[in-house]
Design goal:
Rna Polymerase Sigma Factor, Chain: A; Arc Repressor Mutant, subunit A; 2 domains; globular
Length: 163
């Protein structure tokens, strides 16, 4: 398969599943504009890293991995940013952000450690099989199952505390 064919296949794939990738990015950053930026950056990374796609049949898992890693990079970068003074922030209009249909679930998910949150989002919100999640995260299936079980347990506890 030539480079142009692969580029075209990636473009078609991203267009077909753009809503899923946006939702995935949004589940990390909780801001519509940032999520769109992440998807755009992920597409750029995919085209730049065509050589890392060993099997075109695993395009979906490969691109999910790029979106997850780009989202995590964004969050790490944001943590390092220096907060500006309140008076500067008041000069800017408040950004509009999307919300989860269930705000308690969204807050409980956000409070989970990154490893657990990622597995839960990929498994249940993106409806991926455990084997696909393991491939995306480059982890053993048993590790993914353990994180899923532990993450769901922590999520239940947090949700029970909210009630």
């Amino acid at each position: 398969m030539g480079k142009n064919d692969l580029e075209e296949q990636i473009a078609e794939h991203v267009l077909e599943f753009q809503d899923r990738y946006y939702r995935l990015a949004f589940s990390y950053v909780r801001n519509a504009d940032d999520a769109l930026d992440i998807v755009g950056e992920s597409v750029a990374k995919a085209f730049a890293g065509l050589g890392s796609l060993k099997n075109p049949g695993s395009l979906k898992a490969w691109f999910y991995g790029i979106v997850v890693n780009t989202s995590l990079d964004f969050l790490r970068k944001r943590k390092r940013e220096v907060l500006v003074g309140e008076e500067i922030l008041l000069n800017f209009a408040e950004a509009e952000s999307d919300t989860y249909e269930n705000p308690d679930l969204g807050k409980a998910l956000a409070d989970l450690p990154e490893d657990y949150r990622t597995v839960i989002i990929l498994r249940f919100f993106e409806d991926l099989k455990i084997q696909d999640v393991a491939e995306i995260l480059n982890e053993n299936i048993s590790t993914v199952k353990n994180r899923l079980y532990t993450g769901l347990k922590k999520l239940r506890i947090k949700m029970a505390e909210e009630v």
